Structures
1.
Amino acid sequence: MTSPPRLRSHALSATDDPFASLTDPAASREPVRRSTSDDGAALPPPIKRVVLDRTPRPIDPATDVVAPIAKDQTLGPERLRIEHVSIGYGEARVVKDLSLSIHQGEVLALIGPSGCGKTTFLRSMNRLTEQTASAWREGQILLDGRDIYETELPRLRRKIAMVFQQPNPFPMSIFDNIAYAIRVQNRKTPGKAEVRERVVDSLRRAGLYDELGGDLDKPALRLSGGQQQRLCIARAIATNPEVLLMDEPCSALDPRSTAVIEDLIGELRESLAIVIVTHNLAQAHRVADNVAFMYLGDLVEHGPVDQVFEQPRAQRTRDYVAGVFG
Amino acid sequence: MSNVITTAIARVREPWSDRQATVLLGAVACFVLVLIGAMIIFIVHAAWPSLSANGLGIFTGGHDVDKQLGSMLVTGQHPPKSAYHLNAWPYVYATILIAGVAVLGGLVIAVFASVFIVEFAPERVRRVLVPTVRLLAAVPSVVFGLIGILVLVPFIDHDLLSTKRQESVTHLVQLDGTGVMVSIIVLAIMVTPLMIALTVEALRAIPHGWKEGAAALGANRWEAIWGVSVRAARPAIISAAVLAASRALGEAVMLSMISGSRGWSPNPLDGLTYLFEPLRPLAAAIVENVDGLNAPAVKSSIYVFATILLFSSLLLSIGSYLARLPLRRQGVRV
Amino acid sequence: MSSAPVVPRPVTPVPTTPQERRPVQPAGDSVRNWRLRHRIAHGAAWAAGIFVIAVTASIMGFMAWKGLHYLNPSLIWQRPTPGLAQGDTGGIRDPLIGTLLATFIGTLFAAPLGIATAVWVGEYGKPAKLARAIESAIEMVAGMPNIVLAIFGLAIFQLPFFSFLSFKAQGGGVYGRSFIAAGLIMSLIAIPLIYTATREGLAQLPAKLREGSWALGKTKICTIRTVLLPQIRPNIATGIVLGMGRIVGDTAIVVVLLGAALQIDPVGDTPGLNVLRGGGSTLTTYVYAASPAGEGNAPQKAYAAAFLLLLIVVFLNALVGWIGRRTKNSEITQ
Ligand SMILES: Nc1ncnc2c1ncn2[C@@H]1O[C@H](COP(=O)(O)OP(=O)(O)OP(=O)(O)O)[C@@H](O)[C@H]1O
Ligand SMILES: [Mg+2]
C-alpha cells in the first residue's frame, strides 16, 4: 500500500480501497467524529438511503426557514457570532439576514446549491469581501465578542484563517510559503531556528511533513493538487488561528487527498472553530457537527448534522439533501 | 513586368499545402538565427585586424584613445600593424559606469514607483500615470538628449560648476557641464519608464489568488505586494532590467550629445569634480567616428567597439535567461 | 501524529450591546500600525511615485511649451538648408518625409517576417529545439543595441553585391547608405515587437477555435489564415504600431545608414527608386544636427522637430491604446 504512514484513518488502514471513506461513511466517521455517542447504534445510515425516494413538493419560502436548534453542550466557548448579516454586490442582495454562532471545537458545514451565497458569506467573516468594490454588508459579525470591524484587517485575518477552493501556494519553496505566514503574523520576526521549528510543526499537523521526506526547499507549485491544498492548510494554521474558514477545500482533489484532508479537519477541530463550505453532502456528513443549509441567500436550516440530514425540518432542506436541486 | 507580379501574387494566394507552409514559414523563422550568426561573423571579421593586433590590450588604458583614433585616419589604405594600436579602456569604463549606474539606480526607482502605481496610487493618478509612463518609455532618446544639452548642461555649467573647480583641472581636461552626472541622469530618465512599464504590467498580471492568499494570511498591504507580488514578478523585473541595460549600453547619439565625448577616465578620487568629468562610451565613439570608415584602421577599431557591445548584449540575454531559470523551476511563469 | 495540546482560549465577554460598539469607520490596514521597516518602504514607494510624476510632468510640459512656441506650418513645409544662423536653415520637410519613409519601409519588411516567425513558432514549432532557439534569437535581437545593428548593416550593404541598393563610387567602393538599407535594418528593431504581439495573440486563442476548423477538414495553414490570424488582427496591429514607434525613435541607424545629409538626396534616375537608393535624414537626426552637439546649432528648430517627433509618438501610443480598448469592448459584446 502506497499510503503514507500518517494516514491512520480506519477506512484507509482497514482496506486498500481509497474510496472506502467515501462510499461508507460509517467507516471513516468513527475516528473523526467526536460529538456523537460511542455506541454504534447512533451512527447514521449511509447517505444513499436518505437520498432515495423523495418526491419534490411545492416550496413556500416564507414559512420554510426554521430556527436553529439549541447547541450541543459538549462544544467549547463561542467564537464567532453572526447577527442579522446581509451581504450584497451593488443592487443584488446575496446573503439575507443570516444569524448563527460558531463555537470552538465545532465544525460547521455550509451547504446549499451553487450561487446561494456560501462563498460570499464565508469571505465576509474575514472581511475579504471588502476587496470587491461593489460589495456591502449589513448586520454584525463578532469574533470573541468584538465586532470584526473594530480589528485591523491584518490582525483579524491572523485570527480567522482561510483556505480557498483553488489551492493557492505562492511561487516559492514549501518552506518559504509557511515561513511567509509566520513572518507576516509576528510583529517581531522570530529567529531562524524558531521559524523552522514552526514550519515543521505546521507541516506535521497538516500531515504533509512525512510525505515530503524533509525536502522543504522543493517549489510549492511542484506539489500535487492535494499536497498543495494541505500546504495551504498548513500555512493557514501555522500560527494557531481561532477560526478556520474552508471554501470547498476538496473540490479540486481526488478521493484520497480528500480523505486525508477530512482526517486533518478531525484533528484540527479541537483547537479551532472550522467553517467548511462543501457541495459534497457525504463529506458534510462525515466531518461536520452542525450543518447550515443556505438557499438563495436565506439560511434555511441550521442544526446538528444528524438532524439536518435525517430529519430535516424544512421542506427545501429535505429536497436538497434528497438531491432534488443543486 | 506587371504580368509577372500578378502571377506571383496569384501563386501566393493559391492555397498552400501544409508541408509547403511548414517549410516556408520555418525558413522565414530561421532568418533570425541566420541574422545572429551573420552579425557575429561580419562584425568580428571586420574587427579582426585590430583584434589580432591588440588582443586583450584593447581593454587597457594609459594612452589617449581619442588621439589614437585620430592618428589612424591618416595611416592610408594599407596601414601597418602598428597603426592599429588601440587602448580603449576609457570607452569601456565609460560604458560600464554610465549604463551600470543609470540602470541600477533606475531599477530601484522603477520597482518602488511600480509598487506605488499598482498598490498605493489613487485611482485617478494611476489612470493618468500609467499611459504617460508608457509614452515616456517610447519617447525617442534624442529628445532626452536635446533636453539634456539645452537645459541640464547649461544649468550644471553655470550653477553647479564653479570656475575654481574648472580651473583646477583645466590643464588636463575641459569641464563644460557635460559628463558623468548629466549622462547618468538623462540615461536613467530614459530607461526608467521602460522598466516601470514592464514591471507594472508584470505586477498587474500576478494571479488574484496569490494576492488574496497573502491578504487572508494577515499580511498588510506592503507585505502582500512586496513579499508575494514583487517576488513573483522577479523574472519580469529581471527581463526589464536587462532590456534597459542593453538600451543603455547601446545608446549612442544621445550620449554623444551630453557625455562630453572625450576618451577620459573619470577618477572617483577627484571628489566632486568626478561628477563633471567628461567621458565617452563605446556607442558614442562608434557614431562619432563613422565618417572615418574609409580608413581601414579606424574601421577595424569601430568594429572592435561593436564587437564588445554585441557580445555584452548577447551575454546579457543569456544572463537574463539563466537568472530566470531557477525561478522557472519554482513554477513562476517567465 | 501528535497534534498540539488543546488550550481553550479565554473568551472576553461582550460588555455592551452590539449596536453601541459598532465603530463608525471600519478599521482597515492602517500604515501607522505597520512595522517601521514597512513604513519606510511605503514612504519610499510614495516618494518614487511622486518623483516619477514630477519628472514626467516637467518633461512633457517643457516639451509642449517649447514645441508649441516654435513649431509652425512654414517650418514643416520648407526644405532644410545648411546654414550657420538659425534664420537661414530652412524647415524640416525632408526630415519629416524621411521619418515617414523609413517607418514605412521598416514596417513593410518587419510585419511579414515577424508574423511568419510567430506563426511558425506558435503553430508548428517542430523541432521544438529549433523553435526554442528561434525564440531566444528573437530575444537577443530585441536586446541588441541599435548601433550594433546599424554598423552590421553597413558591413553588409557595403558589399559589392548590394551596390544596387545605394550609391557606387567611381573607384568601386559602395557607399552602403540609403533609405532602403536603413529601412531594412530598422525592420530588425520592429520584428521582436511584432513577433511577441502575434505570439501572445496566438497563445491566447482557445484551442476549440483550431479544433473546430480542423474538424471541418481545413488544413492547418488554411486555419491559420482564415481563422486564427483574423482573430488576432488587433494584436498584430498593436505589435506593428509599437514597432513603428521604435523605428520613429531610432537615431543611431539613421546616422550610420542614411548618411548625414539634411536633404533627401536621390541616387540614379529611376523615379521613386532613386529616393530609396539615396540618403537623407529623419526627424531624430535633424534634432541631433540642429542641437548644439551637431553642426546646425538651431535650438529652436530642434525643439520644434523634437515636439513633432513627440506628437508622432503620442499618436502611435494613442493608436495602441485605441486598438486595445476596441478589442476589449468587442470581447465583452461577443
Ligand atoms: N464579486 C462579485 N460581484 C458581483 N456579484 C457576485 C460576486 N461574487 C459573487 N457574486 C454573486 O453572488 C451570488 C453568490 O455567489 P457565491 O460565490 O457566494 O455563491 P456560492 O454559494 O459560493 O456558489 P458556489 O457553490 O457555486 O461556489 C451569485 O449570484 C454571484 O453571482
Ligand atoms: Mg463558492
2.
Amino acid sequence: MKARDLAELAGRNLREALLRNSLTTLGIGVGVASLVAMLSLGVGLQNLAQDRLARTGLFDAVFVTPKSAFAEMGQVSRAARDQIVTPLDEDARKRLAQLPNVVAVYPDIRFPTEIHYDGKPYATVVTGVAPYSRNDGTFDGMHGNFFSGADANEAILQIDLAKQLSDQPDSLIGKDVILRYAERRPLPASETSQSPNTGKPQTANGNPSPSNSEGEDSQDQGFSIVTKELTLRVVGIIETEPAGGFGAFGRGGLLIPLQAAETLRAAQSNDLRDLLRGTARRNTYESLTVRVNDPQRVKDVEDAVKKLDFGAFSLIDASRSLSLVFAVFDLFLGIFGSLALVVASLGIINTLVMAILERRREIGILKALGAGDRDVRRLFFVEAGAMGLLGGILGVAIGWLIGHAINFGTNVYLRGRQLPSISVTAVPWWMVALAIIFSILVSLAAGIYPAARAARLDPVEALRYE
Amino acid sequence: MGTTNNSISATAIRVEHVTRHYQMGATVVRAANDVNMRIRTGEFVALLGSSGSGKSTLLNLMAGLDRPTSGAIFAHDRNLAEMNSQELAQHRSHTIGIVFQAFNLLPRMTLEENVELPLRLAEVNRAERTARVREAVERVRLGTRLTHRPTELSGGEQQRAALARALVNRPTILLADEPTGNLDSATGDEIMLLLKEINENLGMTIVMVTHERPRAERFAHRMIVMKDGKVVSDEPKQS
Ligand SMILES: Nc1ncnc2c1ncn2[C@@H]1O[C@H](COP(=O)(O)OP(=O)(O)OP(=O)(O)O)[C@@H](O)[C@H]1O
Ligand SMILES: [Mg+2]
C-alpha cells in the first residue's frame, strides 16, 4: 500500500474510535509533557548556574604575569630575570588585547587606603573596576548606578563599608567621600627629566598624575611621598564585590573606575617592593587579567598568552565539569520524566490490542482483498506513530506551559523577596524536536506487538461467518 | 510448465491431492481430504455439498487465504503451496476476486470507498482508480449509490457492491462462497444473473459454493459435489 493510502486508512481508523484514541494520545501527551518539564528544568538550572558562574569573573579570565614572576620568588638572580622577562608593559597589554577571543585586558588594581566621610576616617581597600564589568552581569542587583564614565570621580561602595559609614546605606548614594592617598613625587633634582610624551593617556583628564608613569628615563633613587585627597561621589552600593580576576580575592570596600584607579595606583605593592629593591620597573604591570569571550576559549587564550612569552594561569573551565554534573542530573530527570511516557506507551499497546479485537473482521477483509501481512503491520504502525506524533506535539506544548508556570511561580516568590527575576526552565528547539521524535519512537515501539499480532491474524478465522 | 495447454482449454485452477486437516485436541478433522480437480479458464463451477463437507475450506485454499496441509494448488500454473505470504497476498490482489455470504463490506466506508479498497491495496494510480470504480459499480448497476454506506443499502445491493469490489482489480478468477445465502430467492437470482453475465461477458472463471442444487443447475456449467472433505461427483451441466 502506498504511504498516502496508508495514512488515509490510519487516519480513518483513528477517527473511528475517536474518544479512545484521543485519550491514548492525551496520555502520551502527558508523558511527553512530564519529560519536557523535567528536562527544561534541568537545562534551565544549568543555564542559570553557568550564567552565574560566568558572572563570578573567575572562569572567563586568564591571569597574566611576566614569565619569571613565579620563579622570581625563588633564587633566580636579578640579572637572569632581567634578561628573560618580556616586560608586562603597555605594549604587552596592547598585544594581549589583540589576541583572538579577548574581550578586555586590564590590570588588577587594589590598594589599601583611607577614606573620610562625615569627618571620620575609615580604612578600606580601593579596587579598580573595568568598564567591561558594566554589562557582564556582575553588577546586576546593585543599588544605584554604575559609573557614568571610564574615569569619573565616582565610587561604588561595598555594603559592609557602607554600613560602617551610615545606618542607612542607601542614603549614601549621591554623597561624597574623600579618598586620601599617597602620591610618589620625584625629588626636584630629577624634575627636569619629566617629559609629557611618555605619559599614559590616563594622566590627562585632570586626575592625579600616576606615580608610575613619571620619571620614565630618570633614576629612581629620589622621590618623596606626598599625601593627596580625591573627592568621590557615591553612585551605587553593591552586596558583594564581584571578583575581578585572580588577584581579586581580597575584599575591596571602595570600587572606582579602573582608569581612575590606574591613575591612583600610588601605593601598589610592587612599588613598595621596587622601592625596597631600588629597581622599579616603571610602566610595567605586576599582572594583567585577560577576559575571554567564552569560558570554552580560555584554554586557547592561555596558550596564546604563553606564546607571547608571558606566564599565564586560568582556572579549569568550570562550565565543562558543570556540564558533566548536569548531564547526570538531566539523565535522572529524563528517566523520571520518561516513566510517564512508558506508562503512556502501555496505553498505546492497550488501545491497539483492543483495536485488533474490534477490527478482526476488517483485517480479515483487507487480507481477502489483497492486503499482505506487511500492509496490516504498517497500518498499525502508522496509527501508533500518528498518536505518538500528536501526543508529542501536545506534550511539548503542555511541557512548555508547565515550564512557564514554574518560572512564573519562582519569580513571584523571588519578587516577594525583592530578588531579581530569573529563568529556571528553558525549552530549546532541540528539546522540542527530541521530545517529539522520542514520543514517536516510543509509540512505534509500543506498536510492535499489536502490529505483529494484527499481521499474524488468520483471515479465514477472522472472516468465519458468525 | 502448463504451456502444453492451449488457450481454449487453459487451466485456471488445478487442485492436486490437497488435504487440509484441523487438529482438534486428540482428533483430526479432515476438512479437505485428497481433493483433485481441474477448473478450466472461463468455466462457471458450482461447488455443492452438505454443511461441513469442506466447500469453504477448498475455496479459501484456492483464494490463498489458507494453506493446504499437503498437496498442491495451481492458479494459472503457479503453485500456491510454495508461495510466501507476500506472494499469496499478491495472488489475492491480482488473480482472485472474492465474495462472501456475509457481504463483508466495511461499514464506515461508502460504497465507492469499499469498491476502491482493492485498488489501494494493489497500489493502482489514483487517476485510474475513479474510472475503474465507476466501471465496476456500473457493471453491478449501482452507479447512483456511490456515496451510500452499506447500512443504507439492501441486502441485494450490498452483495452487488461486494461483487463490484471483487471485480474492480480485474481478477481472472472469481470465488463466491454462498453469495445468495443471505438473500431471498428473487434477489438471489439477480446476483446469479450478474455472475452469469460476468462469466459470459468478461470470460471470468467462477467457482461458486452453494447448497442450492436447482440454482447450480440453472446457472453453472459444471457441478462438483463434496462430502466429508472429498469430491464425490463432478458432472457437467445437463442441457
Ligand atoms: N478452524 C477450524 N478448526 C477446526 N475445524 C474446522 C475449522 N474450520 C473448519 N473446520 C471443520 O472443517 C469442516 C469443513 O468446514 P467448511 O467450513 O469447509 O464446511 P462447508 O462445506 O463450507 O460448510 P457450510 O455449508 O456449513 O458452510 C467442518 O467439519 C468444520 O467443522
Ligand atoms: Mg461454508
3.
Amino acid sequence: MANLSIRSLGKTYPGGVSAVRDVDIKIQDGEFIVLVGPSGCGKSTILRMIAGLETITTGDLDIDGRRVNDLEPGDRDIAMVFQNYALYPHMTVRANMEYGLKNEGLPKDEIAERIAEASRTLRLSDYLDRKPRQLSGGQRQRVAMGRAIVRKPKVFLFDEPLSNLDAKLRTQLRAELKALHARLNGTFIYVTHDQVEAMSLADRIVIMSEGKIEQIGTPMDLYLRPATRFVAEFIGTPAMNFIDATVGSDGHSLQIGEQMIAADAPIHAPAGTLVSVGVRPEHLHRGQDHAMHVKLKTGFVEQLGADTIVHGEASTNGTASPLGVRLQGVHMPEPGSELQLGAALSDLHFFDTASGQRLNT
Amino acid sequence: MVENRPFLTVLTHAALIIGVLFLCFPVWMALVASTHSADALSSSPIPMWFGDQGWQNYSLLISRGLPEAGGVPLGRMMLNSAIMALGITFGKIAISIISAYAVVYFKFPFRMVFFWMIFITLMLPVEVRILPTFDVVTKMGLLNSYAGLIVPLIASATATLLFRQFFLTIPDELVEAARIDRAGPLRFFWDILLPLSRTNIAALFIILFIFGWNQYLWPLLVTTDEGLYTIVMGIQRMVNSGESLPVWHLIMGTAVLAMIPPVLVVIAMQKLFVKGLVESEK
Ligand SMILES: Nc1ncnc2c1ncn2[C@@H]1O[C@H](COP(=O)(O)OP(=O)(O)OP(=O)(O)O)[C@@H](O)[C@H]1O
Ligand SMILES: [Mg+2]
C-alpha cells in the first residue's frame, strides 16, 4: 500500500477564497486518518486535492515518494467514496464496480474475480444485477465502497460517506468500515464533521479550523491533551467547560475567583495572564475533597439512564459561566438547587485565553 | 388539488371530453372524407360517417401518384419527407448534444460568448433568416439536394439549451467519480452522459421529427426538382391544382397517410419516454 506526504499544502479558490493553508501531514502506510473540523474548514478541499479533483495551489503531495501534484485523478492510484454515493444511475451494481477496471484495461477474468471478492466482503452478491435506485441508502454506500475496493488503490478517500444515513445504519457501517480497514490494511483518509465518528474510526485524527491544522494526534491524545482550546471544545460531548482564571504571582498557581490552585507543573505564562481552565463534564464529581471546586446552579437536566447530564451555571467564582456535568447513574437534582462539584488537578486543562494555546504540559 | 366531489368530477370530465372532441374533429373529418367519392364531398351536407370508397381511394393514392400533384408518386414524397425529417432530427440532436457538452464541461476561452451566441439565435427562426440562408445555400450549390433541405435546419439553440440545462442537473460527483475511474472526455460522454440523456433524446426526437416532417416554407424554396418534393408540399399542390376542382377525397387520404409516420414515431418513442420518466433516477 502507500504512505503519503503532504507538505505545506495550500489552496486558494478562484475568487480569492483561501480555503486551506500550510497543511503538513505525514501519513504512514496502512493508517486510518480522519480529517475532522467544523463546516467550511477545508476538509473536503484537502481530500479533493489528494484525489486530484482540485488543483493544488501551493505545496507538494507525494504518494509513495512520487510527486503527484500534476497527475490526473485516474493516474494517482486512489479511489474515492462520496457522500451522495455518486453511483452511475444507469448501470447495474456490477457495471458500476467494473467500470473503472474496464477503463484500466484489466483482463475479464481478473475483473470478475475482484468483483466476486468485493461483493462477498460487502455482502452485495445478491444485488449485483440491480440498478442503484433499487437499493437502500446503506446498500448504495456499500456499492460505492465496493467500487473503491475493486480498484485496489494505494489510498482510499472518503468524504463524509455516512452522513446521509440514519444513526443506526451509521453505527453499523462504521463498524464495517473499521473491519474493512483491518482486512484490506489500506491507507484510509476519511473526512467527517462528526467527532464521534472521528474518535471511533481513526488511528490518528487531523483536526482543522479555518483552513489550518489545529492538532494531529491519536484520539486519546486529542481527548487527554488537546493542544488548543478549539480542539478541547471540539472533541467530546457534552463539550468541555471553561472557567476563567489568572496566573498567580508565583507562576505555579492559578487564581479562580477566591480559590487558589497550585498546579503540579510550571505554567508557561507570566503572572497575571488570563487563563481558561477547561474541565470535561465527565471529570467533575460531587463532593468537597477535590483540587478544584465549583458550585453548579442546576438548570436543564438530561436523564439518559446510564448518565445524567446536568446543565447550569458555575456560580461561585464571581463570574457566571455555563457549566455541564455528566454524573453516572440516575440523579434528580431540583432545578435551581446547587451542586457542589470538583475535579482532580490532572483533569484540568489550562489554555491561554488570548491565544487559545495549551499552557500546562 | 385532489378533491373528491362528484359534481367536480363530472364537470372536469365534460370539459376534457369537449376539448378532445374539438381537437379530434378535423382528424375525424379527414378520415371520413378520404372514404368518399369526389361527388359526395362536393354536395352538402358533407358526410359525417365513413363512405364505401375508402379502398379505391387509398389504393389509387398508393399505387400511382396523382396527376394533380404533378404526378409525383406518393411513396416518393413520403420518402423525401422521411429523409428530411430524420436528417434534421438526427442532425439537430447530434449537434446540440455535442455543443451542450462543450459548453457545460469544458473550459475554453470565450465559452460564455459562444453560449450567448447560441442563445441569441433562438430569436432568429428560419423564417427570419430565410433570405441570407437561401443565399448561402445557393452559393454552396445545395439547391435541389437533400443536404440543402436538411443542413440549414439543423442548428438548434433550443435543443442545445435543453441539453445544457439537463447536464447542469447531473451531480458534479458523478463526473468526478468518472474521472477517478479513468474515463476520459470521450468515454464519459459515451458511457455516462449519453445513456443518462436517453429520456431527453426520446422527447426531443418526437418534437424534432414532427418539426422536420411538417417543414413547408423551406422545402418550397430550395426544391424545384419534383423528385425532391415532400409530402406536405404535395398536399399543398393538390389543393392549388389550377383549373380543376380540388380532389378533396384524395387530398384527405394523402393527409391521413402523411400523419402515419409522425404517429408511429410518437408511439415508438413514447415507450422509451414513459419508461424513462417512470424509471427516473434519484
Ligand atoms: N469551488 C469553490 N470555489 C470557491 N470557494 C470554495 C469552493 N469550494 C469550497 N470553497 C470554500 O472553501 C472553504 C472550505 O470548503 P470545504 O468544502 O473544503 O469545507 P468542508 O470542511 O469540507 O466543509 P463541510 O463539512 O461543510 O463539507 C469554504 O469556505 C468554502 O466556501
Ligand atoms: Mg465537505
4.
Amino acid sequence: MSLLKIAWRNIEQRALASTLTGFSMALGVALVVAVLVAQGVIADSFTRGACGYHLVVGKKGSQLQLVLNTVYHLQDPIENLPYSFYKEFVTTGDQPGRFAPYVKVAIPYCLGDNYQGFRVVGTVPDLFDKLEYAGGRKYEFEPGGRNFEHDHFFEAVIGASVAKKTGLQVGDEFQPTHGLKEGDGHKHDAFQVVGVLKPTGTANDRALFINMEGFYLLDKHAKPVEEGHAADEHHEHEEGEHRHAEPAEHHAGEEREADHPGEARDADHHDADHDKHEHDDAHEKAAAAPDAHEHEGENHHHDHEGHDHHHEPLPEEQREVTAILVLASNDFSAEALRTTINEGETAQAASPIRVISDFFKTMVSGVSIALLSLTVLIIVVAGVGIMVSIYNSMNDRRRDIAVMRALGAGRGTVLSVILLESILLSLGGGLAGFLLGHALVGILGPVVEAFSGVTIGFLQFVPYELVLIPGLIVLASLMGYLPAMSAYRTDVAKALSASP
Amino acid sequence: MLLLKNVKKSFAQPDGTRLPILDIAEFRVAAGEQMALMGRSGCGKTTLLHVIAGIARPDSGLVEVAGRDIGRLSEHGRDRFRADNIGYVFQTFNLLPGFSALENVLLGMSFTGGRVDEARAQRLLEHVGLGKRLTHKPAMLSVGEQQRVAVARAMANRPKLLLADEPTANVDTGHQQQIIDLVRNSCTEENVALVLVTHTPEVSEQFSRVDHLDQLNQAVVSA
Ligand SMILES: Nc1ncnc2c1ncn2[C@@H]1O[C@H](COP(=O)(O)OP(=O)(O)O)[C@@H](O)[C@H]1O
Ligand SMILES: [Mg+2]
C-alpha cells in the first residue's frame, strides 16, 4: 500500500477534523484566487483598452488623468487643445502637419457630454476603422449595424454595455446631455444609432461615439470667437510654439462658410444666450469643461430642425479637441513624438500602457498586495489549523505508529505519512478553494460587469494561481513538520507496551 | 535460526539507577521450531520479544536472527530486516482502525523491498476464515477476528520467525484454541519458527518445548 493511501486513510479516519481544516484551507485559497483573478482581470481589461495606439495627446496636466479620461472614460478631462494642434498630426490636402510624417492614425476625441451617465465621445469613424484593441483585434459591429459616416453628422455608434443598459438599438435616437455626469442638464440634439459595437472588454463598451462634426454643432460646443478677431484670422490658434502648418488660404478653400462663423450653424441660434455666456464664462468652451453643469438650470434647449437638413461644419477656429489618440508609424516615432510633444508648452503625450502600468504598480498593486497579504494570512491560519489538528491526533495514534514501525516501517516512513496527510489536506482544501474561488468569480462576474463593464468569466485564470500549488506544498510541509517529527520520535517499545 | 547470547537489557529508573530486566546467557530457537515462553507478569517477556525483533536494543550481547547479527544493523536496516523476516502478533490492538482487514494485511507488505501481493493477502485472510470480511474495518470485527487478521498480517511477508505476545489473552476462551491452531498451522505450513508467549497452561502444554523466562533470566526482577 502506498504511503499516499496510508495518509489518505488516516485523513478519512479523522473525517470531521479533516473536513473542517480542509474547508478552512478552501476558504483561504478561494479568497486568494478571487483576489488574484479580480486583480488580473482588472489589469488585463485596463491594458486591453490601452493598446492599439501609442500615445494619448492632451492638454498639459496629469498624465494619469489624461489616460483615465480618454482610454477609460473615467474622471474629468483636462482642458482642451486647439484644433490646430490636432491638425499637426494629419495631412490636410497635401499639407502634412508637423507630426504627420510620424503618424499612421490620429483620432480626435471631444468630451463633455453624457447619455444616462455614459460618456459621449465626439470622434471620427477612423477610430473603429483604423485602430485595433486588445492586441490586434478589430472593432466589430453587431449584425445590422455599421460605423458612422463622416458626412452624416448626427450618426452615432454605441458600446455593447451601453446598448444593454439603455436599450438603445440601431435606428434609435438619443439626445446627449451636456456635462459629464448624469443629470438633467441641457439636452442636445438627437443622434441616430447606426451601429452597436460587439463587446470588447474595454471601457469603450461603456461609451457612445458620435460624429465629431455633429458634436461641434451642438449648443455650447463651439469655442466662442473672441471680439476683435476677424473670423478669418487664424492666428488666434497659434498658441505657444505650436504653429499652424497649413497656410491661411487653405482654410478659405476648404471651408465654405469659414468666413461667416456666426452663421455656420442655424441662423436662428439664440444669440442673446450666446453673448451672455461667451463673455462672462471663460469655461464655456467647446468640449465642455468639467463644470459645465452650472448652466443646468437655464433651459437652453433648442431644437434643430431635424437631421435631414443640411449642416455646415463648424469652422476650425471654433473647434477644439479634448484629446488625440495617436498610432505612430513605429515605436521609435512614437517615442520621438512623445518627447517632442512633452517638451512643448501646450500639450502632453502619454503612453497609456506605461502610465497604466505605473499606476498599477503604485496604486492598485498596493491595495491588492494588502488584500493578498490578508488572504494569504487566512491560508496560513488554515495551515496552522491543520497542524494543530494533526498534532492533537498524535496521542491517539501513537500506537498505530508503533504498530507500523513493528511491521517494518522506518522512522522516515512514518514521518512522510504525516507530512503527506498535511499536504493532502492542504492541497485537497486548496483544490476545493480553487473551484470555490472561480465559482465566486463566476457569480460575482456579472455584478462586477454591471458596475465596471469588465467581463469576468468563471474560467478566467491568472498565471499566479499556479504559484499556489508549490506554495501550499511548502506551507503544508512546514505545518506538518511538528506532528511529523513527533511521529518520527515515537518510542516504539514504549508505545507498544502502553495499553491504549 | 534465533540465537541470543549474553543479552542484557535494563531500563533507567527515575532515581537515576538502572533496573536490570533481562540477563540471558543463551537462548536458541531452531528454524521452523515452535516453542512456548512462560513467565510471571513483568518478568520481561515482552521486552525479550522487542529485543529479538530489533524494536529495543539490548545493552549488550548478541542477537542473531536468520544468521544476521541485528545489533550490527543500522536502525533503518533493522526496520527493513524486521519487515522482511519477522512477523509479530500483539496481545491487543494489532490493527490500524482506519484500514479494512485486507488493507491491514496489505500494510504488512508495504514496508518490505518486495511488492504488495494482494492475492496472497486475500488467501491469508481466507485461511484464517475471514475471506468474506475483507473490507470490514477492525471496529466491525470481534476481538478474536481481529487477532486472526493479525495472524494473517504477521504471515504476509513469509517471515522466518513469528513472535506472538500473549495472542489469546484478550480472546474469550471459546475462541482461544482457534487462534492457537491458526498460528501453529500457519507456521507449520510455511516452516516459520514460532516464539509464543502465554500465561495459560492449556496453551503451553500443547507445545513440545516450553521455556520459563524466570529460569532463563539471571536478572532479578521484583514484580
Ligand atoms: N520502557 C520502559 N521503561 C522502564 N521500565 C520498563 C519499560 N518497559 C518495560 N519496563 C519494565 O520492565 C519490566 C518487564 O516488562 P515486560 O517486558 O512488559 O514484562 P512482561 O511482558 O513479562 O509482563 C516491567 O517491570 C516493566 O515495568
Ligand atoms: Mg508482556
